[in-house]
Amino acid sequence: MLLVQLLLVVFTFLRLSYTWEYNEHIKHGSSLMDGRDIFDPLIMPNYVKRETNHIYDEEGQMHIQNSIIDSDNIAEWTPIASNLTAGQKDLYVFTVNTGSTSNGFSPTYEILIFLSGNLCNVQDLPEDVELYVTYAFNDTITEDPSSGISVSFSYGYLESLTVSPIQTDTSSNITSLYSYLYVAVEPRNKTTGQSLSTDDYPGTRWEYHLSISENDLVYQWDYRTWLDILDTDENSALLITGAESNVAYNFTIHDTSIYDIYVYSYNDSLIIDGQFNRSVCAIKNGNYLVSSNGNVASSDIQLDKKDLFVQKIVKDGANSTNEYFYVTGLNHSTSYVAYLTKKIGKSGNLSDVGGIIFEHVSFQTKDDNTCSLIHSLGFCSDVAYSVPTSSLYLGNKTLLAEAYENISRSLYANFSKALQLIPCDTESDARYSPLRTCDDCAESYRNWICSVSIPRCTTGTSSYYMFRNKNENRNSYIDDNIKPLRNYFEILPCIDMCYAIVRDCPSDFGFSCPDVDTTPDLLFNSYNFYNGNRDFVSCNLMGNDTETVNF
Ligand SMILES: *[C@@H]1O[C@H](CO)[C@@H](O)[C@H](O)[C@H]1NC(C)=O
Ligand SMILES: *[C@@H]1O[C@H](CO)[C@@H](O)[C@H](O)[C@H]1NC(C)=O
Ligand SMILES: *[C@@H]1O[C@H](CO)[C@@H](O)[C@H](O)[C@H]1NC(C)=O
Ligand SMILES: *[C@@H]1O[C@H](CO)[C@@H](O)[C@H](O)[C@H]1NC(C)=O
Ligand SMILES: *[C@@H]1O[C@H](CO)[C@@H](O)[C@H](O)[C@H]1NC(C)=O
Ligand SMILES: *[C@@H]1O[C@H](CO)[C@@H](O)[C@H](O)[C@H]1NC(C)=O
Ligand SMILES: *[C@@H]1O[C@H](CO)[C@@H](O)[C@H](O)[C@H]1NC(C)=O
Ligand SMILES: *[C@@H]1O[C@H](CO)[C@@H](O)[C@H](O)[C@H]1NC(C)=O
Ligand SMILES: *[C@@H]1O[C@H](CO)[C@@H](O)[C@H](O)[C@H]1NC(C)=O
Ligand SMILES: *[C@@H]1O[C@H](CO)[C@@H](O)[C@H](O)[C@H]1NC(C)=O
Ligand SMILES: *[C@@H]1O[C@H](CO)[C@@H](O)[C@H](O)[C@H]1NC(C)=O
Ligand SMILES: *[C@@H]1O[C@H](CO)[C@@H](O)[C@H](O)[C@H]1NC(C)=O
């Protein structure tokens, strides 16, 4: 008896310390398996279909079958899916396997067992009831739940960790001290912790997925958004993953099926946000309008797609590969909420079960077609924002994007010729700068020319934005070749792009930027400063943002 108590104390201690450790992993959005050779679906046993745990007597009264013998066996990784109604209880056994963790966490003195689960409901659940998962290495929990550890779902999510010590048997084989983990799942009264009676909440069912694994939390959530809204127009939106740049991940092996978005109407997102915003299962089960799930990333981008669809686009950056989601077919002046999910597993072998859910993002479509969202251009490849709609190419974004690109290309052509006359690709001591090359200069100039010839358009007002009459644009090329449909506001280019050409290009060009002290009017009529503290875009930036000047 004393020994049992002592073990419980040790357990509690281990549980706490490990809880802290794996929470750290969750916070960084990576599964514990990343980079490890653990997950291999081919060796995963299939889940044996569960049988009922409820028996009925002669009067038709239902009883919970408390014998563990007939309960279901939970297989490593593959989650159990089940529905419960008030008064019902599910019982499971998980076989603790010393061998199954040998690839990853070598079981030198203990075996970690991760429990994680999702509620899959999409309607309101009663507030005074919680779904509890009780587990222990002793099957007495089937009769006395208080002899085990109970955890409940919160925001549709459950996680826990338990540890089975290992022992060395007589023939010096390593085995787990405990062979089985017993698990009971049951809706209970939140206040009293008592089981419900079968008459409570008729018609309400608690649908859940539960996974037990010696390798990982099959279900995870992340408090960060990991999804940025780049821009929207009247009926489309462009979103990008990986808003933070410094991810420790080898993106050359990026698997484009790893991320998916689920777009909800604002009203339908409220039910998710209230109760299930940590549940991948609920988000996949819910009444979403459109999802990228199953769509293949393609280089054939259809800017003009009209139906409700999410195109996946993958673009390589310097250090990272970003995944873009181009959502089309939306209604104007409407709020939407997007949830991002991430699959777990190794690239090429991602698991269809489980996954990570990130904090949602919301966006609103524009009221009219003053601005048009364009992206994935050939020359100005960093353009991924709304531009003034042309009265010449109304309803055809493909032609609109081409018209803007033609302006940028022709302006760049003259510069390109000039650059060839400067001795910048010669030996480093004959170059204009030992640090910068012609390529740096060409790249900075391209970004600058794109930003000044393809104005970023908005209908929102802010002291940062410049009003443009449709007949008096930033330059005459836009007046003549675009002929904007309506007056608009321009989000001015960031001054950093001007600084970049001064820094990167030979002084022969004589580039200079307006000065904030001596020529502030000139500066603020043409550029603006980057302000990362605002929740709106203060200026339009393309290219390298590592040296932006905050103002
Ligand atoms: C739970 O019930 C719902 C509604 O009847 C059904 O669609 C779903 O397939 C059930 N899930 C399981 C795991 O039986
Ligand atoms: C389970 O708990 C009961 C009561 O505490 C104890 O008598 C029994 O030996 C335990 N069984 C195992 C397998 O530890
Ligand atoms: C110990 O391991 C050996 C080799 O794997 C095996 O043959 C033997 O049956 C094991 N002994 C026990 C008691 O499990
Ligand atoms: C839960 O317990 C409280 C306090 O005993 C009681 O008022 C409430 O009706 C119970 N709810 C259910 C669904 O049993
Ligand atoms: C990324 O993975 C590729 C392919 O496996 C490999 O060639 C490359 O060296 C890796 N890069 C880094 C930085 O680990
Ligand atoms: C959203 O819900 C509000 C309040 O219930 C309702 O007034 C509004 O019409 C709903 N909007 C849509 C688009 O269903
Ligand atoms: C961005 O600029 C920094 C500092 O000049 C440089 O170290 C880095 O390589 C640049 N990144 C790209 C993608 O050019
Ligand atoms: C690219 O990765 C390198 C090495 O991790 C890092 O030093 C550099 O700052 C990164 N560049 C950018 C633009 O993030
Ligand atoms: C657009 O509005 C119509 C009519 O209100 C509605 O039926 C449809 O679901 C909406 N579509 C989207 C994508 O919001
Ligand atoms: C996926 O797993 C299978 C079985 O382990 C393996 O043969 C295959 O090479 C893996 N594919 C990738 C892309 O890692
Ligand atoms: C879920 O909702 C809660 C409460 O509104 C919020 O604190 C949390 O950030 C939301 N998102 C996640 C992923 O938990
Ligand atoms: C846009 O114009 C091009 C070229 O005339 C044409 O092929 C394409 O079908 C047009 N797209 C739409 C949506 O009208």
Automatic annotation (TrEMBL):
The keyword Signal applies. It comes from the Eukaryota. Residues 1-19 form the signal peptide. Pfam families: Mid1. GO terms for biological process: calcium ion import across plasma membrane. GO terms for molecular function: calcium channel activity. Keywords: Signal. InterPro entries: Frizzled_dom_sf, MID1/Yam8. The keyword DNA damage does not apply. PANTHER family: AEL197CP, MID1P. This is Similar to Saccharomyces cerevisiae YNL291C MID1 N-glycosylated integral membrane protein of the ER membrane and plasma membrane.
